[in-house]
Specification:
alpha/beta, TIM Barrel
């Protein structure tokens, strides 16, 4: 717990990004269309946000609601365009119809990323076998984070899984950082930090006015203070 915890905030635009950085965010997850749980933003939006802040950015690669890859060629093209605009870190994750990781889709996209760092997102919370998924992805280049609530229902239900996985950090498939998000509340933080978890992801919690309102620097500041306590 001696190291500063990473606070990642969802940003839809430059206004969000500036507020999140002002509040103390370390990193942003860039998405569009939260009605579909967050899809890939345009290269133009990425460029505008990149020009507005100097903290780390991770860009969502997801073109449709759900956890199926859909048109992998279109995802590859989106990744290529974003890389051309300067993006160097991404968020992705796809499952097959049986709840297993869609290895072919993930491998094809990761090949286009060519060594960029990336997060496997909350598709892991819908996986039929979390441990198997981790081990299948363990050797892919650039994977350094799992965004997870421990359960599809959120952190309240997933807390035992998060604590178990935190205790396994360093084992094969468990080297990436746990970035906890999905129904995360401030009252979860002390127990998660005590378990050595050092990554936290907020979306709605950074927007007291709801998703139609921008990120609140004050709300982000409250989270920063809680993580640093």
């Amino acid at each position: 717990m001696s190291e500063r915890a990473v606070l990642e905030v969802i940003a839809l635009d430059a206004e969000d990004a500036v507020a999140a950085q002002t509040g103390g965010a370390d990193r942003l997850e860039l998405v569009t269309d939260m009605a579909a749980d967050g899809l890939t933003p345009s290269a133009g939006t990425f460029a505008e946000i990149r020009a507005s802040v100097d903290i780390s950015l991770r860009v969502m690669l997801r073109l449709e609601n759900g956890f199926a890859a859909g048109d992998v060629g279109a995802l590859v093209r989106a990744a290529r365009e974003l890389r051309g605009a300067g993006a160097d870190a991404f968020v992705l994750g796809f499952l097959d119809a049986d709840g297993g990781v869609d290895v072919a889709a993930v491998e094809r996209i990761v090949a286009e990323l060519d060594g960029c760092r990336w997060t496997f997102h909350r598709a892991i919370d819908r996986a039929a076998d979390r441990d198997a998924l981790r081990k299948q992805l363990a050797d892919l280049p650039g994977l350094d984070t799992y965004l997870t609530a421990g359960s599809a229902a959120g952190v309240d239900d997933g807390l035992p899984t998060l604590l178990t996985e935190a205790a396994r950090r360093g084992e094969p498939g468990y080297e990436p950082r746990l970035l906890v998000g999905g129904g995360l509340r401030l009252d979860h933080v002390p127990r998660l930090r005590a378990a050595g978890i050092d990554g936290f992801h907020i979306g709605g919690a950074a927007r007291p006015g709801g998703w139609t309102r921008p990120v609140s620097a004050a709300a982000v500041r409250e989270w920063r203070a809680a993580l640093d306590a």
